[in-house]
Specification:
With 234 residues, the chain is of the alpha+beta class. It has helices at 18-38, 43-62, 145-148; strands spanning 11-13, 64-66, 79-81, 86-96, 102-111, 118-120, 125-133, 151-157, 163-170, 176-179, 186-187, 192-197, 200-206, 211-212, 219-220, 226-229.
Length: 234
């Protein structure tokens, strides 16, 4: 089930990409001017504009940062929203032996080059742990990527005491994971958890009794799609 806020959504450029986009534009514009002024044959100029203009457009699209708000009409208690735009590639019960030492329900979202790569907090609560671990760069959709690839783990404790693990995973092309979460700070749906550069994946580890609200292959919208509902504790 997809919950989408009907309010107008503004698009901006994520802060992680402002420098690259600015310097890239300056370089491309400089080369284009030189080609136009000093080469009589204009074919190289137009080829440069088409090829590198397309590449720049893809990079610009990658660094989109839509301003989103989860619907104010929805109570966020027990709600788990998608932390990223992408596609559901894993829904399975796994044994999480690093932090919880118990079975957990894992839901994984794969982000392609064309998805927004900003990540949102999946639940309201308090950040219990933030841990970055270096690793390999397997293709992000492979099962072993969750444990073997470079990744950043954030554990959030919900108001009723449930721990939720959100894992940002670098893919075959990703070379930087940024995590804004800080241990001990309160966090909320609508706030950015971090950013992953280039193709990547985000795993969510939930209690096994959580109600799954998505299916394999379903497209997700970060901070909008409800992927699960937690059993609230009495």
């Amino acid at each position: 089930m997809i919950k989408i806020n009907k309010k107008l959504k503004k698009i901006r450029i994520h802060r992680e990409g402002t420098d690259q986009l600015l310097y890239g534009f300056i370089v491309l514009a400089s080369v284009a001017i030189l080609l136009w002024r000093y080469i009589d044959n204009k074919i190289p100029f137009w080829m440069f504009i088409v090829i590198f203009g397309t590449v720049y457009g893809i990079v610009l699209n990658f660094y989109r940062c839509p301003i989103r708000r989860f619907s104010e009409d929805d109570d966020t208690e027990g709600i788990v929203v998608a932390p990223a735009d992408g596609k559901i590639v894993v829904i399975e019960r796994v044994h999480e032996d690093k932090y919880f030492h118990e079975d957990r329900l894992m839901i994984s979202i794969f982000m392609s080059l064309f998805n927004v790569h900003a990540n949102w907090f999946p639940v309201d609560g308090k950040v219990k742990l933030v841990h970055h671990e270096d690793g390999n760069y397997h293709k992000a959709w492979l099962p072993k990527a969750s444990e073997e690839n470079e990744h950043a783990d954030t554990i959030i404790t919900t108001p009723d005491g449930t721990d939720v693990l959100c894992r940002q995973i670098a893919g075959a092309m990703a070379r930087r994971i940024v995590t804004y979460a800080k241990e001990g700070e309160d966090c909320f749906i609508d706030e950015h958890l971090g950013f992953i550069k280039l193709g990547s994946r985000v795993d969510i580890f939930l209690p096994v009794d959580a109600e799954v609200c998505v299916k394999m292959g379903q497209a997700t919208t970060g901070d909008q799609t409800i992927i699960a509902k937690l059993k609230t504790k009495c």
